[in-house]
Amino acid sequence: MSIISADDNISGFFKTDPEKGFRLLVEKYSQKLYWHIRRLVILHEDADDALQNTFINVWKSIGNFRSESTLYTWLYTIATNEALALINKRKRNSSVSIDGLESYFASSMEGSTWFDGDAAEMKLQNAVLLLPEKQRIVFNLKYYDDMPYEEMSRVLNTSEGALKASYHHAVKKVESYLLNN
Amino acid sequence: MNKLNEIPGKNPFKVPDNYFEEVNRKIISEAARTDHDIKKVSFLSRYRNNLLIAASVTGFILLTYTGIKVFSHSDRNTKVSEILNDINPDSFMNDIDISSLESETTILPPQAGPDVSKKEIIDYLLLENIELSDIYEQL
Predict the structure, then answer these.
(1) What is the pTM of this model?
(2) ipTM of the predicted structure?
(3) How far apart are CA B24 and CA B30, in angstroms?
């Protein structure tokens, strides 16, 4: 069964049996959304909060889901917004300066129980953290999730051309960082 | 692009053991708690506009129906009670015996107007300097 038709099955339950539809949705998407959020917010505790908020928001607006948007893009849009809201909250409340927040995240990864990468992967994460916010999201969605530009365009409400350019610039910056560090 | 391709691109993050089973349970039970309030609020908020429109339309129809029934009755012999019966069959007017009301009512004969001849009217109009064409314009 394709992703779309499996999602149609799930969204079909939203009207007849919303509890069942929601349970199927959580079971299918919680991991994918968690990793997407985690790559943006870095810390497990933050990703955990944002994931739960994402699904509660999904549940609250489950009756408003329109089939013209796919379930997959709808969920990624809500998850991305939750992650960004959390990052902005951290920026507002943190004693660390905004410019220093990336290095704070980077140092949080080092020695963290919940970081499993080797030195090269750590370096890659440090390079990604230095990207501007939008480029970071585009890079993660393409590099790790291999999301097609068409889907990404719906999630981020940005033209495919702009996304391709954004990914190209992000890769160049990451490459440059990896070469020089 | 070479440097980036050298890195396997696997997910470098970890989660606690059984994290996803636990978080799924937590999310579903949290949603179940949120469920009831949302349904109550969302029913009212979702249908509030429709209810207002329905109430306005019903009110308008009732007013129009009443207006037509009361003002467009050309049959002067129709009794008031018949009209009221059409509007509200349970009206208190049903308890009143209309025939007794009619017998108790003194009907005055139509008042006779002053006996004025056509000639006198024309003389009056001429005296007041009113042209007949002005009268026609007003009609």
Answers:
(1) 0.62
(2) 0.83
(3) 10
DSSP state of B14: -
The four Cα atoms B121, B122, B124, B128 give a dihedral, to 10 degrees, of: 140
Q: What is the pLDDT of residues A6-35, one digit of tens each?
A: 676 777 777 778 888 899 999 999 999 999
**Average pLDDT, rounded, for chain A:** 85
Interface residues of A toward B, Cβ cutoff 8 Å, are 19, 22-23, 26-27, 30-31, 34-35, 38-39, 44, 48, 51-52, 55-56, 59-60, 63, 113-118, 120-122, 124-125, 143-144, 171, 174-175, 178-179
Instruction: State the Cα–Cα distance between residues B48 and A134, nearest whole angstrom.
Output: 39
CB atoms within 10 A of CB A138: 27
Report pLDDT for A170.
95
**At CA A103, angle to CA A99 and CA A108, rounded to 5?**
140
Q: Output B136 or A89, whichever has higher pLDDT.
A: A89
Question: Which two structure tokens, joined as six digits, stand for A151?
Answer: 């889907």
* A147, two tokens: 């999301």
Cα distance between residue A173 and residue A141, in whole Å: 16
